[in-house]
Write a structure and sequence with these properties.
The protein is α+β, with helices and mostly antiparallel strands. The protein is built from 20 helices and 58 strands. InterPro entries: PA_domain, Peptidase_S8/S53_dom, Peptidase_S8/S53_dom_sf, Peptidase_S8_Asp-AS, Peptidase_S8_Ser-AS, Peptidase_S8_subtilisin-rel, Peptidases_S8_3, S8pro/Inhibitor_I9.
Length: 1077
């Protein structure tokens, strides 16, 4: 099953914005997460009189029952109570004390503005909604080899023993054999009470309050979950539904996964991949795939349900789940969730919760996202977690197309039976009217094999005018198709719809010719083989050149000879958009065609029985793809490494995995990344594969590791700049100091602004049991690298600091160069880290943000040139506001809707952008819509910007109407700015307001001044002062300072001043469409 993004989800930069204050908006409550200054219990190292440190020592867990911990939590509770005074307790939806110090609450704008002024509040975040990022891999990874990682922890029968893996996901289907704690006479996992108990009681560190009235046997009792749902394998199930969520009919308020009809299965799949039982038989569509095993098959498992059908995954739910998981004593957390369009911050509540989990010794694995290769950047950007890209493995479930000329084309398939030789016909030629004589819409419907429903669906005709449909002339003709194999092209409609169209026309089988997106094995309406685009062209050519072409389709088999690994095309690419000086993703792992536990199809009556406390014997299995599937591989492997090395920190485990990874294969992707200058989306470069494809057996003996911990992360957080927000108080930062991302001791080096040359320092620790002499080699495309010292001898347990000086040689400015730095000791240890570097003439902060009507800021600019430097200032300029009404909705392809501009679901504003414009920004705000004044309502308006050739130059498609598109130094011309109604929640219309800024040096406002040195030096830094005064209240202002080298803009800092006392914006992700295209 592929998980695809809506067409709107293009890469755009969204900066800090605000919500206008209105009287009506005061009465509407929205969910917020409020963070307080005191350190969460998981990270508290002392400093308050009478309250000793509570941060656990390496190798231990936070003991929630300890007196010191209880006393400190009571202290945090008192501080929270002080802040909450005056807020109705009924509106407080969650309180946090170990993963975060703060609370979640339903607040009005007035309450938020009051909290902003409260000295007891550190930060306030709108509760944003995220989405899920949706075997034979243990053998492919070598875990079962004679000297594999399983052997280092006692063999498969002990792999993961004593470890607890927590899954934050969509729930679990407890009846699946992957989660059983018994085995039958053959050693096969079973839930049958007659089986032999294969697991003892949960580890002593497990503190899920088992025996409490609401948690018998570790299960939180809610509809769909009973005490019998938990056992000695699946030791905990909890759920965290966001406030005011209506549970879908096919979903459950409990930790039970939604049914297949409710788009469930994701949580069961990820949980079984990380730590499901070994030896679970798997047969899909009648094809025997052998048996399944999780990475750590003896680990105990706990599900924390934070995602709900139709409701997404609320940040407040995630923080609550992390808060509980830390208290419960888990070892590893997996988070296969994130924004569909990618990106994000390192300072949002979810990231901070994971930071505190890491400080408590818990390893966090998170998916990079499925917006690759160029739709959206990698998500889950905190350096304290391992962000995982998806790669392929060597197993393919497929079949052959045997053409009448003897040619054989292997493809993806789940054919239960073979299809004997039959006539073959291209869909283009399978209609009553010649293909060339058809309208463009009918041509599309014909070659893509549309069903009758597809021929009238708005999403079936991307790039065509709104309201486009196909006629019956675009249908497959039964007189031409009956008994034949039809060659259909991939694209637009669901792949399974295509085989349904063939069946409807009495066809015997289908060959699906790919469009470059990748082959998928899935169940079809007729025997089907999915082949590559190139093979599809060859088969079509054969069919066109012969009077009686034929083909046969074989039965599906399991092949183990597929070249691998490649980074998957859907896997989101880096760099880290929150800080280009830290790598994301970190590593790749199998995430394509992964077989694992799933939820079954169920009837409404069966769901009702489960909700009433009844039982079921139904289970499911499925093969799906996504970075969601890759992340639990790393989570399970981390559990194995923690089992082998109990005192290792999460950073050490991450380092071992990264420094022993190997390069993926060249995927041939060369498209430029839209969100960074000078890099492509090539899967085998660091922005695609991270450090490379995981090789767990090497990770069990890495030689050296790069460690980091609480003090390092505090210094990093104290160095955060906008759009990240502070996560520590000024007093904390004064005590610890600050560093930039490039200085964090990561097992990678990423230097996004090399000013001629740059020296970077790292420290390694010898975790082997022998002294070794290591020698460095370094090679980076377009750069020279000098490592000091070039060699060192290091004893077990000792640490060594080294530096590497990177100097740009022949790599053009603003282009990334990639390579590796490797330490080898000659006795089997090869410690390799990826190095990424980009030279620039100037580095400047991307954003200065303020809410002061009069204010000043000093920024630091780095220079990579010698000579004169000039600054062009623009603004400050208030928004131009245009209010309008939209009276319809459309889910059609948005580029076509915008270009046509005729649909009542679209409001087009033509904007002239003069030459010399430094920045153009277009924004929408939830608070500026009709729904803002209706409790529980929300309009979903999207924003698309086209240039004069009707090419999309920016788009924003969050769930809701908080949207922004920012164009830096745009070309002169007339732009179409389109507001498109995706959903009005069944209301007939909405009123909305488009805010626009077209800012150039001719725009002068607020006495905006920029003072910078007139001369720059190579490798130097300069302090640049900015000031403004007497801005009007209640406005949003935008300005810019563009720094020029030889008359050419080398960098721009935006100045965003909001004088309307803004409340935080919620930037929610739209749900993924499943199975399309």
């Amino acid at each position: 099953m592929n998980q695809k993004l809506r067409p709107i989800s293009l890469a755009v930069m969204t900066l800090l914005a605000s919500i206008a204050f209105t009287a009506n908006a005061q009465e509407v409550r929205r969910s917020y997460i409020v963070q307080l200054p005191a350190t969460a219990a998981a990270s508290y190292e002392g400093g308050i009189a009478g309250l000793p440190a509570t941060k656990p020592a390496p190798g231990s867990h936070l003991d929630i029952s300890a007196t010191d911990v209880q006393n400190y939590i009571a202290y945090l509770e008192r501080k929270q109570n002080d802040v909450l005074a005056g807020i109705d307790p009924a509106n407080v939806t969650a309180r946090y004390d170990v993963a975060l110090n703060g609370f979640a609450a339903m607040l009005t704008d007035t309450e938020v503005r009051a909290l902003k002024k409260n000295a007891g509040v550190l930060s306030i975040h709108a509760d944003s909604m995220q989405q899920l990022h949706t075997s034979s891999t243990p053998a492919f990874l070598g875990l079962d080899q004679a000297n594999g990682l399983w052997s280092k922890v006692g063999g498969k029968g002990s792999a993961g023993e004593g470890m607890i893996i927590a899954m934050l996901d969509s729930g679990v289907w407890p009846e699946n054999a992957s989660f059983a704690d018994r085995v039958d006479a053959n050693g096969t996992p079973t839930h049958d009470a007659s089986g032999t108990l294969a697991y003892g009681p949960p580890p002593a560190k497990w503190r899920n309050y088992a025996g409490a009235s609401d948690l018998p046997n570790g299960c939180e009792l809610k509809p769909g979950i009973t005490a019998a749902s938990c056992n000695n394998k699946l030791i905990g199930i909890r759920s965290y539904a966001p406030a005011n969520l209506t549970i879908a009919a096919a979903d459950f308020p409990s930790g039970r996964d939604a049914t297949a009809e409710g788009s469930g299965g994701h949580g069961s799949h990820t949980l079984s991949t990380a730590g499901g039982n070994a030896g679970v038989p798997v047969t899909i569509n009648g094809i025997d795939l052998g048996s399944l095993s999780g990475m750590a098959p003896r680990a105990r498992l706990a599900m924390y349900k934070v995602c709900f059908t139709g409701g997404g995954c609320a940040g407040s739910s995630t923080v609550a789940a992390v808060n509980q998981a830390i208290k419960d004593g888990v070892d590893v957390i997996n988070y296969s969730i994130g924004p569909t369009a990618g990106g994000g911050l390192m300072s949002d509540p979810t990231a901070v919760a994971f930071l505190n989990a890491s400080n408590a010794g818990i390893f966090v694995a998170a998916s990079a996202g499925n917006a690759g290769p160029v739709t959206g950047p990698a998500a889950n950007l905190g350096p304290w977690n391992a962000t995982v890209a998806a790669s392929t493995h060597n197993r393919a479930i497929g079949a052959n197309v045997v053409a009448g000329n003897g040619a054989i084309y292997r493809g993806a398939s789940l054919n239960q039976v073979a299809l004997p030789s039959a006539a073959v016909i291209s869909a283009r030629n399978a209609g009553t009217v010649a293909y060339a004589a058809l309208t463009p819409a009918d041509q599309l419907a014909r070659r893509l094999c549309y069903t009758a429903a597809d021929r009238t669906a708005a999403a079936s005709f991307p790039g065509m005018p709104a309201g486009t449909t196909a006629s019956s002339m675009g249908a497959l003709d039964p007189d031409l198709v009956a008994g034949k194999i039809v060659i259909c092209d991939r694209g637009n409609n669901a792949r399974t719809n295509k085989s349904a169209a063939v069946l409807a026309a009495s066809g015997a089988g289908m060959v699906l010719a790919d469009n470059g997106a990748g082959l998928v094995s899935e169940v079809h309406s007729v025997p089907t083989v999915h082949i590559s685009a190139g093979d599809g062209n060859l088969l079509k050519a054969y069919a066109a050149a012969n009077a009686m072409p034929t083909a046969a389709l074989t039965k599906a088999l399991v092949f183990l000879d597929k070249p691998a690994p490649f980074v998957a095309g859907f896997s989101s690419r880096g760099p880290n958009v929150a800080d280009n000086n830290m790598l994301k993703p970190d590593i790749s792992a199998p995430g394509v065609d992964i077989a694992a536990a799933y939820t079954p199809s169920t009837t409404a009556d069966e769901v009702s029985t489960l909700k009433a406390g009844g039982a079921t014997s139904k289970t499911g299995l499925s093969i799906i793809s996504g970075t969601s599937m890759a992340s639990p591989h790393i989570a399970g492997l981390a559990a194995l490494l923690k089992q082998q090395y109990p005192t290792w920190t999460p950073a050490m485990i991450k380092s071992a995995l990264m420094t022993t990874a190997t390069d993926t294969l060249n995927d041939g992707v060369s498209a430029a990344l839209p969100w960074t200058k000078g890099a492509t989306a090539a899967g085998n470069k660091p922005f695609g594969q991270g450090a490379g494809h995981v090789t767990p057996n090497g990770a069990s003996d890495p030689g050296l590791v790069y460690n980091a911990g609480l003090a390092d992360y505090v210094r990093l957080g104290c160095g955060f700049t906008a759009p990240n927000v502070p996560i520590y108080t000024p007093a904390t930062c004064a005590a610890f100091g600050s560093i930039k991302g490039v200085a964090l001791n990561l097992p990678s080096i990423t230097a996004g602004a090399v000013l001629g040359s740059q020296t970077i320092t790292r420290t390694v620790t010898n975790v082997s049991d022998v002294s070794s002499t290591y020698t460095a080699t370094v090679a980076i495309d377009g750069y020279s690298g000098v490592v000091t010292p070039a060699s060192f001898t290091i004893a077990p347990g000792a640490s060594q600091t080294y530096s590497v000086k990177l100097t740009r040689t022949n790599k053009p400015l603003n282009a990334w160069g990639f390579g590796n730095l490797t330490w080898e000791d000659g006795i089997g240890h090869k410690v390799r880290i990826p190095v990424s570097a980009r030279g620039t003439a100037l580095s400047a902060p991307s954003l200065v943000y303020s809410e002061a009507a009069s204010g000043s800021k000093i920024i630091t600019v780095g220079t990579g040139f010698a000579g004169p430097m000039t600054v062009d200032k623009a603004g400050l300029k208030p928004a131009t506001r245009n209010t309008f009404t939209i009276s319809a909705v459309s889910n059609a392809a948005q580029q076509g809707l915008c270009a046509a501009g005729t649909s009542p679901a679209v409001r087009v504003t033509n904007v002239v952008v003069p030459a010399g414009t430094q920045v153009a920004r277009f924004s929408l705000y939830n608070a500026d819509t009709t729904a803002a004044a209706i409790p529980g309502a929300e309009d979903d308006l999207d924003l698309v910007v086209l240039n004069s050739t009707s090419t999309i130059v920016g788009a924003s498609g969050n769930d809701g109407s908080n949207e922004a598109v920012t164009l830096m130094n745009p070309a002169a011309g007339t732009y179409k700015v389109c507001v498109i109604a995706y959903s009005l929640q069944a209301r007939p219309s909405t009123t909305a307001t488009l805010s626009s800024w077209i800012v150039s040096s001719t725009d002068v406002g607020g006495n905006f001044k920029v003072l910078a040195p007139a001369t720059a030096y190579i490798g130097g830094t300069a302090s640049v002062g900015m000031s403004w005064s007497s801005l009007a209240a209640g406005q949003r202002y935008l300005g810019a300072a563009s720094f020029k080298v030889d008359g050419v803009v080398a960098g721009t800092t935006l100045v965003d001043v909001q004088t309307n006392d803004p409340v935080p914006l919620a930037l929610n992700s739209k749900p993924l469409e499943v199975g399309a295209e």
